[in-house]
Amino acid sequence: MDSSALLYNQLKAADPFFLLAGPNVIESEEHILYMAKNLKSIASKLGLPLVFKSSFDKANRTSSKSFRGPGLAEGLKILEKVKTTYDIPIVTDVHETIQCEAVGKVADIIQIPAFLCRQTDLLVAAAKTGKIINIKKGQFCAPSVMENSAEKIRLAGNENVMVCERGTMFGYNDLIVDPRNFEWLREANCPVVADITHSLQQPAGRKLEGGGVASGGLRELIPCIARTAVAVGVDGIFMEVHDDPLKAPVDGPTQWPLRHLEELLEELIAIARVSKGKKQYEIDLTPFRP
Hints:
Helices cover 33% and strands 19% of the residues. The chain contains nine helices and 13 strands. It is globular and about 70 Å long. The chain starts with a helix and ends in a 16-residue tail after the last helix. The relative contact order is 0.14. The mean pLDDT is 92.
């Protein structure tokens, strides 16, 4: 069994769930190594399988003036150092087909951004790396769309696919999480991940001094969405975590403070273990006779 299939099976078997976590974007090698060290320590203490997440490029920022990250070459060098230093699998996202081969040499999971979840050429190029593919559901999509996106990965010869809920557009500057999606996404016949931080973005919902807009967010509701997701029985949790969210150059309003990560995960583990969310009721509609 190759390494991707082995990791995929380990994540599917995670009890009660696996964790994809890290800062939104690579800010510096020093910061990424610091975050990876602390995240591994917390996940190991709690017995959660961890895949470290950070982006080398944020290609879909609201403004062209916004910080995007170090770029492909430098970003992959930093992520590879995290992988070898702390022996942690890596997940990062791609935006173009030409990035897939290089990213596949470092990342264990290639993530397809929500805006690109139906882009066939990108899905196929990512699939052909043989790595695990995590497809985020578009904010504009019904959950049924993800069955087709997952099937594109499989038809390209890769069975290692996951789908991720990250909220649905609700008006112009808000997202809403429909818990029914966690159930409906299972129809894609693969692990279901809940993105509990991006789900609370308010796209282009924050006016900036001097003009322009940026994404806002509702950080205080992250525990609410997380509790719901694990009670329903998702297979994995995706969350962006930062040691100093107020100074984060990207998505600060929806990054969870590192200082509160352990206590939140402890609560989520307890909820997941008492819930029967992963079990389907066999509903008996015959007349009840006590």
